[in-house]
Amino acid sequence: MGVLDGYRVIDLSIAMAGPLAAMRLGDLGADVVKVEPVTGEWQRHAPAGGATGNRVNASFLSLNRNKRSLAVNLKADEGREIVHRLAATADVFLQNYRPGVAERLGMDHATISALNPRIVYVSMSGYGESGPYMARPGQDLLLQAMSGAMLSTGREGDPPAPSGTYAVDAVTAYSAFEGALAALLHRERTGEGQRVSVNMLDAAVAVQMQELSVFTVGGVPQRRGSEPHGHTYIRAPYGVFATKDGHLALGMPRLDVLAVAFDLPELASMDGDADGHTRRDEITAIVARRLPARTTAEWLEICARHDVWAGPVYGYADLVADPQVRHNGSFVTYEHRTEGTVTTPGFPYGLSATPPEVRRGAPLVGEHTRELLDELGYPPERTAELLAEGVLACED
């Protein structure tokens, strides 16, 4: 039994941020009903990396485990009625439609909360639900660019570099997950439902609480130097350096210790907190010239001996084979009815009494349509009629 066993979530979201937030609720035991068009949610037709799968592509599979699928045409009156009946039985209702779409479909907060005053209604958007940018497309790369984060790394004159993960989507998803749990706790205490509003822009700003506070409170400008550097507000050396056979990541070691460990006496007299910032380029260049003398493994052994913060630079093949990753159970392996044995990232938290688990893989389009309508009291013959009329869809 999960900690959210007995709770129902209605997930009307697409792409990554919304589905990931809903999946995390499902991982904790909630009954998550994914409401998608009769042709299937967008992510089903946009396979990341071209990993199409048999009937479910890898990107959709990764974001939609522990959900049941209801495929329904929300432009049809009875389609909307079905979702309204589901909402009346639910605890959380989550959507990330473009501005105005929820209202046109009758899935807005006013409509849903009138049907179920205790519901937690989570509304997700790109830039906010009002203001000059409300109609702009809320896409991860665009928000990374606007957030300022791309100019916190690299070298002056180099082009801004995106993150190697969908960072804004992920932090937005966890903001929605956190907001939903907080609102459920409030409801448990007071009986009151409420609206939770999350947008990608605010999430991208909030996650940079240290960097932006250094700028707004400390008045320190965001300045990239002439040498590659891991972050403008972290003292040198900080970043990835070439070795004899690969690369080594160094995380702001003490300069006096590094002077001994790396045989760099010119660093011994420097002050880490002061010179580490004001002489950042000089320090970076000194270290960069030294590291090609040995292999990554040799440097890692030296760093471990001198308690210097360092680590290898992995690709995905290295990551999944790493002994600590395997020890942690960072990935989960389970059987999917059409994709066979699948291995995907697991859970970012552990609970001793009510741990998250995979109860079902990502559904086919409308795989649970008949099941859900049966729970709502629809006679099988009426469900069959709605399927024939295209109001519903169901893949077996």
Automatic annotation (TrEMBL):
InterPro entries: CoA-transferase_III_domain (IPR050483), CoA-Trfase_fam_III (IPR003673), CoA-Trfase_III_dom3_sf (IPR044855), CoA-Trfase_III_dom_1_sf (IPR023606)
Pfam families: CoA_transf_3 (PF02515)
GO function terms (MF aspect): CoA-transferase activity
Keywords noted in UniProt: Transferase
Protein name: CoA transferase
Species in which this protein is naturally found: Nonomuraea mesophila
